[in-house]
Amino acid sequence: MKPTLLASLSIETNAGTFRAHYSERGLAGIDFPATKPRQYAATIALPTNVRQWHAITTKAVKAILAGKTPAELPPLDVSGGTEFQQRVWEELLWIPGGETRSYGEIAKNIRKPKAVRAVGGACGANPIPLLIPCHRVLAANGKIGGFSGGLEWKKKLLATEGSAPVN
DNA sequence: ATCGTCATATGAA
DNA sequence: TTCATATGACGAT
Fold first, then answer.
1. A104 touches strand B (CB under 7 A)
2. A123 belongs to the catalytic site
3. Sign of the Cα pseudo-torsion (A12, A13, A17, A18, in order)
4. CA A2 centroid distance within chain
5. Is the full-model pTM beyond 0.90?
6. Chain B: nucleotides under 7 Å from a protein CB?
7. Is the pLDDT reported for residue A39 higher than 80?
8. Which of A30, A53, A107, A160 has its CA 20 to 30 A from that of A64?
């Protein structure tokens, strides 16, 4: 079931303006800076918890862009995903910064060693890149694979964290 | 080293 | 049920 969004807030960084989308349960999605940033009307009467979440999200995003591990994450609303996808996303959260996994390893970790391609699919469906580090997942041979926000971002993030994909 | 092919899980249409 | 995958393994160049 798809979460109902309460608010979309900006995150200003030196890499551009990200957008964070919140539901009643937490952070439900993040957008990479658009090439042509869209302007949003000012949000009024933001619920207190959303403001708290956003403060945490902002710090977490900036930490990641700086190659550091976030001290704290906001509650993540992954209710939009299937059970399998949520399982994959949760697994991705365990990957420490600076390390990478292959799609096959993730599949093995969730006790479905054959579901390698499905893992790729779940990564692509990840609504919260950066915080759910789908960019730390490479193909088995070290190839970069793909990235929903654009391959450039994936390479950049990996380089920032000290990983060196093959291509 | 590169390329084609196939097996297999999951999800969307 | 059919089609597409951000894979992986294998065999033939």
1. no
2. no
3. negative
4. 17
5. yes
6. 7-12
7. no
8. A107
Q: Which nucleotide is nearest to A129 (CA to C1')?
A: C6
Q: How far is the CA of A83 from the C1' of B9 (A)?
A: 14
| Distances A85 to A1, A59, A79 between C-alpha atoms, Å | 13, 26, 10
Q: What letter would DSSP give residue A76?
A: B
Tokens of A6: 């309460």
Neighbours of A60 (CB within 10 A): 23
For chain A, the average pLDDT equals 93
Which tokens hold the place of A147? 């990235």
Which pair of structure tokens corresponds to residue A75? 């509650």
- Residue A107 token pair: 């599949």
pLDDT at A1 over 90: no
**pLDDT over threshold 80, residue A36:** no
In this structure, what token pair is assigned to residue A43?
A: 């949000």
